[in-house]
Amino acid sequence: REGETVRIGYCGTRTHGADMPLVMPGFAECAKITNTEILFWGWHPKWKEATAPRAYESQGIRYKYEGQINDLHEFVKRIGVLDVAVAPLATTEFNAAKSPQKWFEHSLNRTAMVLSDSPAYDCVEHGVTGFKAKTAEEFTHYMRLLVENAELRRQMGEAARHAVMTRHTVAQWGQHWRRALSVDDVGQAIPAAVNDAGLRQVL
Q1: What is the DSSP string of the chain?
Q2: In sequence order, what are the beta bridge partners of 64?
Q3: CB-CB contact of 29 with 140 (8 Å)
Q4: What is the mean pLDDT of residues 65-90?
Q5: Euclidean distance between the first and final Cα of the chain, in Å?
Q6: Mean pLDDT of 51-73
Q7: Which of 58, 59, 105, 145 is deepest in the core (most CB within 10 A)?
Q8: Spatial contact of 61 and 30, defined as CB atoms under 8 Å apart
């Protein structure tokens, strides 16, 4: 609704410093939009200087640092305050093994996202369950678009949650894990009882 604060932010560990140039220009642009608040968890622009949760300013961007949350359930709950989230991934060997975990977490909260157009987010449908970006300019465009359009945020957040709940739950993927556990490392079949016991441990 008009006049309400729109919160946009990033949640990730401090190993992601190399990814942040993709989104910092976008945060700078969003900071100019009235009633917009910027939040960080884990990494933040001044993390090497200070780690206390409080308000900071860097490169002309005022933001709130929410700290590092180690409890998973509390983390997913706390990041639910965001209206827009970003997940940048630079093209690096480290990022080649990334999963869509950030999209899962934010989608459960119906949070619209701008993500890197990378294999980690192949499951995201561009323009429907998230926006995919390759450059800082594209991130900036989509970040502003979502901050300024409440109905688009709502539609994308709902679509993303629906996609996760219908295609990416334990119930949907259990059969794939069961098949993966059905043979050992030399190709021998594993008895079903042992297989199911192993799957229960995974779950």
Answers
A1: -TT--EEEEEEE-GGGGGGGGGTHHHHHHHTTSTTEEEEEEE--TTTTT--SSSEEEETTEEEEE------HHHHHHHGGG-SEEEE---S-TGGGG--SHHHHHHHHTT-EEEEESSGGGTTS-BTTTBEEESSHHHHHHHHHHHHH-HHHHHHHHHHHHHHHHHHSSHHHHHHHHHHHTTB-TTSPBPPHHHHHHHHHHH-
A2: 39, 55
A3: yes
A4: 94
A5: 41
A6: 93
A7: 105
A8: no
The Cα 3–Cα 116 span in angstroms is: 30
pLDDT exceeds 50 at position 181? yes
Average confidence score pLDDT of the chain: 88
What is the gyration radius of the CA atoms in the chain, in angstroms?
Answer: 19
Mean pLDDT of 103-108: 95
* 1-37 burial: b if 16+ Cβ within 10 Å, else e: eeeeebbbbbbbeeebeebbebbbbbbebbbeeeebb
Average pLDDT over residues 50-54: 94
> What are 42's two structure tokens?
């884990």
pLDDT of 11-36, one tens digit each?
998 888 899 999 999 999 999 999 99
